[in-house]
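In response to the reviewer comment on reproducibility (Comment 2.3), we provide here a single inverse folding case reported in full, input and output, so that an independent group could reproduce the run without further information from us. The structure tokens appear first.
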């Protein structure tokens, strides 16, 4: 199977000298194309740090990492931008532009990935927002949207350019059950139809149950790598 992400001996620390605090220790990880991976662990276990390194949002320090066949060790700013254009991001903070409407925020996801014809932007953006139950909110600005609606706009923006990998940090935390189910099914459909890989930090058991594998981190170390079925059996027992 084609590898989407691979790390060997990945380490990371914040600060320097006496204030240096290591937060990742020798992380070895292989994720294949089309897998939907959940990353679990207590607060401070290193999940978000690992996610941001692999998403080229934080520079490598020590170890090896390959994303979509590109080596992150010593990667130039230009190469990191090139990689990010093949990725989708869903974060809790939404990061929507206050001056733009929901549709314009979603279109921005295309512009950052090289863009398409304007007619296609509108069609694709409206289609995704409609799937997420926001067909009557496409021209609303973020200040007029609820937290859950903002999160759905952020999901649409992340998926509109058909990314090769989706990185998501608690993507369903602000969503009701139905909206969360729709987002989960969209990620599964992308995996099956396009081989899109998803790496998701979450405690949401709905997401855990649909994952290909569940990885668990503890104090900066990867301590478990299980199939979702095995995790469900453990929980049931």
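Designed residues, in position order:
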């Amino acid at each position: 199977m084609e590898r989407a992400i691979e790390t060997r001996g990945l380490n990371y620390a914040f600060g320097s000298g006496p204030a240096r605090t290591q937060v990742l220790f020798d992380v070895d990880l292989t994720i294949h194309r089309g897998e939907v991976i959940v990353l679990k662990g207590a607060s401070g276990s290193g999940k978000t740090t690992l996610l941001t390194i692999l998403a080229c949002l934080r520079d490598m320090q020590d170890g090896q990492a390959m994303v979509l066949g590109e080596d992150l060790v010593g990667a130039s700013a230009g190469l990191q931008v090139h990689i990010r254009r093949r990725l989708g991001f869903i974060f809790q903070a939404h990061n929507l532009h206050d001056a733009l409407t929901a549709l314009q925020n979603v279109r921005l996801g295309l512009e950052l990935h090289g863009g398409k014809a304007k007619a296609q932007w509108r069609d694709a953006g409206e289609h995704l927002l409609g799937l997420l139950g926001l067909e009557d909110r496409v021209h609303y600005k973020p200040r007029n949207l609820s937290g859950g609606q903002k999160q759905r706009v952020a999901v649409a923006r992340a998926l509109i350019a058909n990314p090769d990998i989706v990185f998501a940090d608690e993507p369903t935390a602000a969503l009701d059950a139905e909206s969360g189910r729709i987002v989960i099914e969209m990620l599964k459909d992308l995996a099956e139809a396009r081989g899109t890989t998803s790496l998701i930090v979450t405690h949401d058991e709905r997401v855990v149950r649909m994952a290909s594998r569940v990885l668990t981190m503890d104090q900066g170390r990867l301590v478990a790598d299980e199939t979702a079925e095995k995790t469900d059996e453990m929980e049931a027992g």
